[in-house]
Amino acid sequence: MTAPPETRTAVIKLPVLPLLNSNQRLHWAVRARRTKVIRETAALVTWSKRLAPMSKVAITAVIHPKTSRRFDPHNLQPTVKAAIDGLVDAGLVADDDSSRVVSVAFIAGAKDPAGAWVELVVREVP
Fold first, then answer.
1. Which one of 46, 54, 86, 100 counts the least CB within 10 Å of its CB?
2. pLDDT digits over 61-97, tens only?
3. CB-CB neighbours of 104 under 10 Å
4. How far is CA 24 from the centre of its chain?
């Protein structure tokens, strides 16, 4: 009997940044600037880890809030989308289409009084 293939996991921790959420109604230029900062930061953090490319991945977005108040982690979908685009820019994943990114899940992380931030747990899928 053969052993199952070993899966790799990468953890990409984004620093405290101005985040985007689904409830915001920002001017298009402000939204574009924030998207660019998130995307470029995710690409830089990923690139600095010198990770080998992964063909298919499942991503878990861990949202660390600033306070203990209730919140909806999935409301940060615009932030996570920009960060995933950064993973593509860095070459960790060839593209973010459904054949390569098979799932994206959102979970709440631990409170951080320094500010809200996002952690992407990228797991290679065999």
1. 100
2. 999 999 999 999 999 999 999 999 999 999 999 999 9
3. 17
4. 19
Could you tell me the fold of the domain covering 9-124?
Answer: 60s Ribosomal Protein L30; Chain: A; (3.30.1330)
Domain ranges of the chain: 9-124
pTM: 0.91
Where does residue 41 rank: exposed (0-12), middle (13-18), buried (19+ CB within 10 A)? middle
Q: Who contacts 3 (Cβ-Cβ below 8 Å, separation ≥6)?
A: none
Query: Tokens 């320094």 — which residue?
Result: 114
* Beta-carbon contacts of residue 19 (< 8 Å; ≥ 6 apart): 34, 38, 76, 79, 116, 118
Would you tell me how many other CB atoms lie within 10 Å of the CB of residue 92?
A: 24
Distances (CA, A) of 60 to 9, 56, 66, 77, 118: 11, 14, 19, 12, 10
